[in-house]
Each structure stands twice: as structure tokens, then as C-alpha cells.
Amino acid sequence: MKKIGILGGTFDPPHYGHLLIANEVLNALGLDEVWLMPNREPPHKQKSQAVSNEDRLRMLELAIQDHPDFKIQPIELEREGKSYTFDTMTLLKEQFTDHQFFFIIGADMIEYLPKWHRIDELVRLVQFVGVERPNYSHQTDYPVQYVDVPAFDVSSSMIRDRLRKGKTVRYLIADSVLRYIEEKHLYGT
């Protein structure tokens, strides 16, 4: 049975924090792969409308191109409407019957678990894997396996803000992603 980590997000843009989390969980749990799963419409927050799904997907491809165990799972981009994890994981479990899924979340999402759509059923479909995030608690009544990840306090919103203000984002995102952002004039560049 293949062990697959799932790291969902808007990846708007993808940054080294995403890749650090994926790599640490991959190695700590001995996973076969980590699938990065960009969502179309996250139910818990507004997605930036400035960047197309195609641009987010291309930036993610560029960000992971050098890691053989990172793959992109576009299932949520291919569906209309809000991306509920329960619906997505139900489809993935039907499609990949020989896979065990580990759904990777940050401490901000651990706090939010009681509000997740059909959470009591979802915890039977996947093993949640929690990682630390500054200024968030990881206390929950739900079954979450924890992986220590070195602190790297970066977010996509912080990167978008820095780009709009003309500040450097070097060593926060891959050079190939930055070149793409600049070529496409994304985020006010």
C-alpha cells in the first residue's frame, strides 16, 4: 500500500514553507510521495482573484520540479465550487484504493478542525498530520499525528504583500517561481 501525504492550499504563490513542510513530513513518516493539492475555492477563506488557477498550477509545477517525490494532485481545480476535503478525499479513496492518505495541516487548521465539513467522517478517511505554526495552538479532540518542522514563518499573503511593495522575496520562493511571477506581472510586479 502506498503512503501518500496530501498538502492542500491555495499556493498563491507556493513558497519554501510549503516545500519544507512537505519534505519534513515525507521523511518523518516514510511516505512514498507528497501530493500538493491546489484548491479552487477554499471554504474557510477568500482566494485572491488576481491570479488564475492556471498560473497557480504553473508556479506549483516550477516550485516542485526538482523533487522526485512531490507530485501535483489537481482534483480540486478540476471541480467547480467550494473544495471540501471530505468530498475530495472520498473521491481519491475511490480512485486510489491501494493508497493510505495522510492529510497535512498547519496548527491554524488544527484549531479549525471542529468546523470542517463532515469532520467526524473525514477522520475515518485520512490520518491528519499536524505541523507547528507560530502563534497557534495544536490542541484538539481529533486524532492528529504531529511532525516537528523547523520554524519558517512565511506565508503566501506576506509574499504577495512584499511583491506589491517591491521588496525582496529571495530565499522565500524558488527562483523559477519568482521569474514566472515577474514574466507574468503577477502580484503587482
Give an overview in words.
The protein is of the alpha/beta class. The chain has a single domain (2-154), classed as HUPs (Rossmann fold, 3-Layer(aba) Sandwich), CATH 3.40.50.620. Helices cover 36% and strands 18% of the residues. The protein contains 7 helices and 6 strands, in the order βαβαβαβααββαα. It has helices spanning 16-28, 53-64, 85-95, 107-112, 119-125, 156-164, 175-184; strands at residues 2-9, 33-38, 70-72, 99-106, 127-131, 144-147. A 6-stranded parallel sheet has the order 3-2-1-4-5-6. α2 (53-64) packs antiparallel against α7 (175-184) and α3 runs parallel beside α5. The radius of gyration is 16 Å and the shape is globular. The mean pLDDT is 92.
Spell out the key features of this protein.
six-stranded parallel beta sheet, single chain, alpha/beta, 189 residues, 18% strand, Rossmann fold
| CATH superfamily grouping | HUPs
Radius of gyration: 16 Å
CATH class: Alpha Beta
Run of helices and strands: EHEHEHEHHEEHH
**What spatial order of strands do you see in the largest sheet?**
3-2-1-4-5-6
Examine the secondary-structure arrangement and name the CATH architecture.
Answer: 3-Layer(aba) Sandwich
Give the helix/strand layout.
Elements: E1 2-9, H1 16-28, E2 33-38, H2 53-64, E3 70-72, H3 85-95, E4 99-106, H4 107-112, H5 119-125, E5 127-131, E6 144-147, H6 156-164, H7 175-184
Parallel strand pairs: 1-2, 1-4, 2-3, 4-5, 5-6
Helix pairs in contact: 2-7, 3-5
